[in-house]
Amino acid sequence: VPKADLLLLDAEQVVTVDDGRPGPLRGPAQSNVHAIERGGVAILEGKIVDVGPSEDIRRRYPDARARLLPGRTLLPGFVDSHTHPVFATMRENEFAMRCRGATYEEILAAGGGILASARALREMPEETLLSLLLGRLRGMLAHGTTAAEAKSGYGLTVESEVRSLRVVQAAAKAQPVTLVATLLGAHALPQEYRDDRDAYVQQVADEMIPAVAKAGLARFCDVFVEKGAFTVEEGRRILRAGLAHGLLPKVHADQLRDGGGALLAAEVGALSAEHLGATGAEGIAALAKAGVVAVLLPSSCLFLNLHFRPNARAMITAGVPVAIATDFNPGSSPTESLGLAASLACATLGMTPEEAIVGITRNGAAACGLDEEHGRIARGRRANLVVLGAPSYTFLPYRMGTNLVREVYVDGAVVVTS
Ligand code: NIG
Ligand code: FE
């Protein structure tokens, strides 16, 4: 008799997102979540050892302890492929200013926004930053996120960016959410460098990247390519320097206007291009050709009340794999809910529930280099699972703003119950 130490049985659906092939789902394949009706899984020593119809699983493991999930839906643990969770303080006052008519870019240009976050982070001791991050990760886990990409970018000095990434590394060891770190030293031009942009770009390329790579503190290097942040040329220089030190490129591209960010991502062979709110046909074609994952962030579009949206449909039609993430950060997206992001992907980007669910699981995992272990329910993979308090996966995007997550398992152990 095969062995299992836990069975999860009688779920209305087990959403596997698995077809046995590696990599993200793209094109028409992104609309198949590979759900098993009345399904179950068997878990042994933290790994999934079997998936299928409940009656088969029950029969194969007659002696194993079983937890029954009638009326519920079982999904892979969610993967948040774009977050900025290492920051000192929330920026609720800027939100209030924006409600009164100030714009996001005006606030940044006046030394607020990312620059205000940088001033606050530089003052904060490392252990305080760590305990704040741990609290935010508990919030993410409660919303079903079991793996996430975490960017630095609120330090903007070599020392404080390294410190931010050390905090990510310490947090990764101290709690259940898997983290992959991204250096975003080029998130904004620090005020001290206002009159010497080149010196800051050079510092990122020649000091920050080598220091981070040498200490093994990041897997990826990102740059905010935008008017008011960094140019395509500066981005290219930084991403090439990252590549030379083994950091794979990611790009904050075309968030507020089509400034060639997607083309740069394709040119340097980035794993992902993120935001893409204003990316046009040429950028989309380049992403498709280069196999770059598009990470779309509908909650930040909503929160900034942008009058345009990423063209998710054109991306999917062109064969670009689309991931959906929260962009969790204190300025443009103070939410840790991937369920909400999935709702907004459907309601405001014209994606289907299936495409959105693939976006927060398998394609999210692919966007942050975690496809081998995360984002699907399949034999041999880590038993990272979400139990949804609803009878089908469609409820996840449908119940906008309501946390339907009832239980979360990491490596077969319950880490959230509600
Ligand atoms: O992804 N685009 C740049 N960075 C963040 C916002 C950072 C902030 O406002 O603190 C974003 O939206
Ligand atoms: Fe971002």
Keywords:
418 residues; alpha/beta; eight-stranded mixed sheet; eight-stranded parallel sheet; 16 helices; globular; binds N-(iminomethyl)-L-glutamic acid; binds fe (iii) ion
**Heteromolecules bound:** N-(iminomethyl)-L-glutamic acid, fe (iii) ion
Coarse morphology: globular
Number of helices: 16
Radius of gyration: 21 Å
Percent range for helical residues?
A: 25-40%
- What's the mean pLDDT score? 98
Largest beta-sheet characterization: 8 strands, mixed
Give structural notes:
It is built from 16 helices and 16 strands. The chain has helices at residues 54-60, 92-99, 104-109, 114-123, 126-142, 158-174, 197-214, 232-244, 261-268, 281-290, 298-303, 312-318, 338-349, 353-359, 362-367, 395-398, and strands at 6-15, 35-44, 47-53, 66-68, 73-76, 78-80, 145-151, 178-186, 220-225, 248-253, 272-275, 293-296, 322-324, 385-388, 405-410, 413-417. β11 (272-275), α10 and β12 (293-296) form a beta-alpha-beta unit. The two termini are 34 Å apart. 57% of the residues are buried. It binds N-(iminomethyl)-L-glutamic acid (NIG) and fe (iii) ion. Residues 84, 113-114, 117, 224, 252, 255, 300, 327, 329-332 line the site of N-(iminomethyl)-L-glutamic acid (NIG). The site of fe (iii) ion has 4 residues, from loops.
